[in-house]
Amino acid sequence: MKKYWQRLALLLAIIFGIQQVASAQADPIERVWLNGAKSGKVQIYKAKNGKYYGKIVWLAEPNRDGKPKLDINNPDKSKQSEPLMGMLILKGFKKDGDTYEDGTIYDPKNGKTYSCKMTLKGKTLEVRGYVGVSMLGRTDTWTIAE
Fold this sequence. Notes:
The protein is α+β, with helices and mostly antiparallel strands. The protein contains one helix and ten strands; from the N terminus they run αββββββββββ.
């Protein structure tokens, strides 16, 4: 019986160690973030192509008239029936130090897509959407939601 407990303890230690290594390898941006207005949460992850993407995983008000909110402001009429929950709004970011660049952000409030860069600052993420040059844009500060 003693060997059983020793083996179980060893197995648990190995599993815990593997989980620690896996989480240590994740990029600090790979988590769930709460937007500045506290109206939504976005999960950022690294795709197989090495770029970073983000999708809506929570909305403070997920429904409109008793039904899930849809992308009604999208200029593409065929996409206006897609739900906001689960929508990919951050696309194609490349990491450069604490900055993630060359990506886009989609704003479902107005149906527009902007160039975007994100800068990790401790436990906050500065998300800057812009048109043309970064100076012509707006920054929203996101916080860790987990």
